[in-house]
Amino acid sequence: MPNAFPLPEGFLWGASTAAHQTEGGNTNSDWWALEHGALGEYVKEPSGDACDSYHRWREDMDLLAGLGFTDYRFSVEWARIEPAPGEFSRAAIAHYRRMVDGALERGLRPMVTLHHFTCPLWFSRRGGWAAADSGELFARYVEAAAPIFAAGVDHVCTINEPNMVAIMAGIRESGFDLPAAGLPEPDARTAEALVRAHGLAVSAVRALAPGVRAGWSVASQVYQALPGAEEVTAAYRRPREDVYLEAARGDDWLGVQSYTRTRVGPDGPLPAPEMAERTLTGWEFYPEALGHAVRHAAATAPGVPIIVTENGIATADDERRLAYTTGALAALREAMADGVDVRGYFHWSALDNYEWGSYGPTFGLIAVDRATFARTPKPSAAWLGAAGRTREVTGRS
Fold it and tell me: Is 103 helix (H, G, I), strand (E, B) or coil?
């Protein structure tokens, strides 16, 4: 990486995972039910054992710490903690508390995400986020989960990508009628409920653990207006992104998650340029998106520190992962040099894991054998991890 990037004092440097995508056997969640029924043709394979990280989390953390990372973002599974309404599993809470303690023992600062796409099946069956009391139920769960994060955790993420949760609800409402480019219309009731639930959760975290910094993570699509399409772009972006960035204005930090861009013309979103390189998810290879994403977040929620909670690429070629990440970090460095207050970077993902319907898109820094669960770090993992030891991102080999 030209012009080595020194990491500021206290800068978070880690990788991210999510419970349902790595743990396996998450049978009480709504996503498990969707994988085995309602989503039908849209699911190439169910999550099954995933990466078996529910049992192998120590190995995952050993690898990350040994590579040099100083931080680890992981989620706790609501469906395990509250498998039935108002019934909380002491064993599940103790399990996740052991993960927090295990991270600290290995020199990894844990960032705990309380909701990463999955809900208990009972919660979804009673109306999900659109139900009138969804925010209170989520806050009740947050209060029950407090022993997990009340000590030794500096950052809690209430909800991962709430804009995508509302969009997924909209997709189900439309009968999976997807547009040719861009994202579907979010479900308005779900969107409103998520903003409210986040506020209640932040209040709960602050009351129960005053030293913990609370925020949430928003998916950035980096909407780029073609000439003459500025107003169309702003109107399109607002319900899909900006309302969630605005909701973070009183938070302790704001998570930004960036992978690619979306160009918008006078008639709406456009497909990626015909000759553009594409990733395994079909997205345009566009590492510069990260710089645009943090700049827009900073402008929309001024004064709120930003943490990049996800950034990465689905590819089977680790050389392209190295190239993508080098470009993304260069764009991040430029934004920071221009005054954007970025406090950390988490790569997605620590592991090749379940990507909501398939194991095909490999985002991981660490490969996972589907039969044996053997973990094998890739060159990109060694390169990124080294920065955690030296506190400087240098040219890749």
Answer: helix
Which tens digits make up the pLDDT trace of 192-248? 999 999 999 999 999 999 999 999 999 999 999 999 999 999 999 999 999 999 999
Structure confidence by residue, pLDDT tens digits, 268-289: 999 999 999 999 999 999 999 9
pTM, to two decimals: 0.97
Domain ranges of the chain: 5-393
Q: Is 138 exposed, middle or buried (0-12, 13-18, 19+ CB in 10 A)?
A: buried
323 three-state secondary structure? helix
Q: Rounded to 5, what percent of the chain is helix, strand, coil?
A: 40, 20, 40
Residue 130 is predicted with a pLDDT of 95
For residue 94, count CB atoms less than 10 angstroms from its CB and return exposed for 0-12, middle for 13-18, buried for 19 or more.
exposed
CA 297 to each of CA 35, 247, 254, 329, 396: distance values in angstroms, whole numbers, following the listed order: 33, 11, 8, 17, 28
Residue 64's alpha-carbon distances to 97, 127, 386, in angstroms, are 19, 38, 11
What would the DSSP string read from start to end of 3-25?
S-EEPPTT-EEEEE--HHHHS--
Q: DSSP letter at 130?
A: G
336 phi-psi bin (left φ>0, alpha ψ -120 to 50, beta other) = alpha
According to the CATH classification, is domain 5-393 in 3.40.605.10? Answer: no
For the chain, the straight-line distance linking the first and the last C-alpha, in angstroms and rounded, comes to 9
Instruction: Supply the DSSP string of 21-72, one letter for each residue.
Output: HHS---TTBHHHHHHTTTTGGG-SS--TTTT-HHHHHHHHHHHHHHHT--EE
Task: Specify the residue for token string 């919660």.
Answer: 123
Instruction: Give residue 397's pLDDT.
Output: 55
Peptide bond into 349 cis (omega under 30): yes
CB 84 within 8 A of CB 122: yes
| Residue 154 identity | D
Torsion of CA 61, 347, 50, 118, to 10 degrees: 110
